[in-house]
Amino acid sequence: xxxxxxxxxxxxxxxxxxxxxxxxxxxxxxxxxxxxxxxxxxxxxxxxxxxxxxxxxxxxxxxxxxxxxxxxxxxxxxxxxxxxxxxxxxxxxxxxxxxxxxxxxxxxxxxxxxxxxxxxxxxxxxxxxxxxxxxxxxxxxxxxxxxxxxxxxxxxxxxxxxxxxxxxxxxxxxxxxxxxxxxxxxxxxxxxxxxxxxxxxxxxxxxxxxxxxxxxxxxxxxxxxxxxxxxxxxxxxxxxxxxxxxxxxxxxxxxxxxxxxxxxxxxxxxxxxxxxxxxxxxxxxxxxxxxxxxxxxxxxxxxxxxxxxxxxxxxxxxxxxxxx
Length: 324
Prior knowledge:
The protein is mostly beta strands. It has helices spanning 2-10, 243-251, and strands at 52-56, 63-64, 66-71, 74-80, 90-95, 98-104, 114-119, 122-128, 138-143, 146-152, 162-167, 170-176, 186-191, 194-200, 210-213, 226-227, 282-283, 308-309, 321-322. It has one domain (2-233, 279-322).
């Protein structure tokens, strides 16, 4: 069980967006909400064609590795060869001046590993192929900067069989379909990353009929919130001191006012500082366990080198396109 939780959180992300085609699914978080056995489909490249295109030799080696495609006066999409091997590794489409969709080949094997969908330029969901068989097996839905819901075809039977709900990026619930009938037989509930309750459907009627109460002794699987797009997450506000503790802290004399002698304790100024707490904000991505964090934020289509306009040369097919 610990392995499955680790798998769901490493992904991945980076996680960018997930879901089906052009649908706009509602993000459900936490609880024992209804589930949908989402079908696994092949990853297919987005079309990137328009009225005209320009080719850019970004590294100055005489070969085009960046293609901008325009429709009238607006940029429609870009294709980029990130490792300069002559094949497209990233495709990005635009809508109303904002990024609309992205696709990535993270391991440069010529096959897609992840595709992302944006709403008003912000990441909304992503779909990933985590076992590199060319089919989507993981769907990630964003809740603002956090992961809101994650669905997986854990057994690679062709449809989702695991549904994870998150609250502010922290795992809150997991539902498992182990017999691939499209309905969960096991429900897990988490609080602050700790497993507190497990329900089972032992007679396959779709309803839990047995409960294990883990309570405060349940194992801790998650310690940090998960970022949907890999960006740093807001830090949680510090909890206020209890009234008694606050009053005691206010009444305590400053350390400098305590006279030191051979029996005195070391002052606060000389005490060893505590170790720094780990930074929050892990990200979901695809790869060995769910996909390497998407480099889309690090890849800038930026101000290109002086392009050769309207060449009609295309990147792809494993053959480098020579710029004139």
